[in-house]
Amino acid sequence: MLARLLILTWVAFVPSFAPAALAQSLPQTPEAHAREVLNQMATGKFAAVEAQYDEHVKAALPAGKLAATWSALTGQVGNLVEVTGAYSQQASGNEVVTLACAFERMKLDVIVGFNANGEIAGLRFIPHQDAPDWSPPGYAVPSAFTEQPVTVQFQHWALPGTLTIPNGSGPFPIAVLVQGSGPHDADETIGPNKPFKDLAWGLASQGVAVLRYTKRTAQYGLKASDDPAALTVDDETVNDARAAVALAATQARIDPKRVYVLGHSLGGYLAPRIAQGDPQVAGVVLLAGSCRPLEQIVVEQIRYIVGISNMPADEAQRRIAKAEQDAKAIESPDLKKGDTVHLAGAPVPASYFLDLRNYHPAEMAASLSIPILVLRGTRDYNVTSADYDAWRQALSARPNVSFKLYPGLTHLFMPSISPGDGLGTPADDDHPGHVDADVVRDISAWVLSGGQRPKMTPAKGDS
Q: Rounded to two decimals, what is the model's pTM?
């Protein structure tokens, strides 16, 4: 049957919190790479495609299986005629490209996923579906604000951004949004979801301006760092975030004394560092921010995902052991600049982790005098209660720090679709949704109050 044949394989195993620091090392864009893979299949160069598999796809698709599958597929739908469209998105830590393809007797989508090392992390053929469209959440009031393009400039890197500003004379407080790991666009598009666009439209509807911008690794690829072998989080995130703060403070109708940083995931992990070096920052919001070393987070994620999968026990243990081995190499006292280590299968320059070795987010946050808001969804498996509890332990004695848990919400602060009431699954990120209205209301209330404890109903144990 065609339906059974079309689902070839989909192996997406790079955790979404892993810093895709070397995604910029790809020699071509993901779309161009996907088109090349499709052309290789269409011209019978299956070995060339198989040579690009990551270790997980190699295990799922033994040599020769791709040729047999392609032959059976084209026997049903005919030969490939042309590619009629394409779009890319982030999903489960991978760059996923969907190619809309016209075959002789049917239109299919060929979906190719690439990990941060440019290897094929997934391959799928499904009946054609239109590209997902973002629609405004119910709490957004488009008539209440306007948007205008801006450019975030740090040295010779210029990043396209959008200023979303409420109608009126102001001056308004403003939130600068800082993305999680990976080469994200300004909306932090993940699968069909755009959490930063949700936040921008939602907050602006309630009187808070927002500045969001494309991450440097998404905009510049290979040229995101003058010396890729010496890459640090300053190159990837921190310097551009501070440049965005400076830009936000100079905008008309913006109160320069009320510029807040909202960091999600990796952005939350780095938010204390961004603020520590920038007196312009009036406060920070930690949206699912971790406060533990990244390599430890990845080991924990892999253990969890392996535990909920149906993979053979020996393969599961091999993957866990590899993650633990990578973490040990990252934490080795013998690690030095110029070395290359691996995280979630991706090569990363040692400089990235050497720079973070003495960075302790919770301790740095405790040293700040500015207000802090710490938020987490209870079904977030990427950043768990261990991180949230660590933030509480470090910061709960301070009167200008607030915490809130959101029952049922995921790492994107959207309702989980995964069964049960425990931690969610990677499928949550691939399901269309919007940032929960309570999250938007709580952030806006906190910002508008100047970082005072907002009037929000706390979960048990929160305040």
A: 0.79
Residue 454's pLDDT band, with cuts at 50, 70 and 90, is low
What element of type H or E holds 55? helix 55-60
Q: Among 130-144, 345-359, 415-429, 432-446, name the most confident range.
A: 432-446
Mean pLDDT of 84-111: 83
Q: Given this model, what pLDDT does residue 222 score? A: 62
Active-site entry in 187, 234, 326, 380: 380
The class level of CATH for 2-127 reads: alpha beta
Pick the catalytic residue: 181, 265, 290, 402? 265
Fold: same for 2-127 and 142-294+350-448:
no
Alpha-carbon distances, residue 128 vs 31, 70, 106, 110, 271 (angstroms) = 17, 17, 9, 9, 41
The CA-to-CA distance between both ends of the chain, in Å, stands at 55
Active site residue 389: no
Q: CB neighbours (10 Å) of residue 403?
A: 21
Return the SS3 of 110. strand
Q: Residues 56, 264, 411, 434: which is the catalytic one?
A: 411
Is 411 catalytic? The answer is yes
Q: Are strands 157-166 and 145-154 parallel, antiparallel or unpaired?
A: antiparallel
Domain coordinates in residue numbering, the chain: 2-127, 142-294+350-448
Tell me the residue length of the chain. Answer: 463
Residues 408, 316: Cα–Cα separation, whole Å: 28
Measured CA distances, 263 to 165, 199, 287, 354, 374 (Å):
19, 12, 6, 22, 10
pLDDT tens, position by position, 353-363: 999 999 999 99
Distance CA 296, CA 304 (A): 13
Strand partners, 212: 162
* CB-count burial class (<10 Å; 0-12, 13-18, 19+) for 153: middle
Name the pLDDT band for 259 (thresholds 50, 70, 90): very high
Whether 380 is catalytic is yes
Q: Would you state the pLDDT for residue 42?
A: 93
Closest by CA to 269, choosing from 199, 179, 399, 185, is 179
CB 96 within 8 A of CB 89: yes
CATH architecture of 142-294+350-448: 3-Layer(aba) Sandwich (3.40)
d(CA 82, CA 46): 19
**CA-to-CA distance for 76 and 193, rounded, in angstroms?**
33
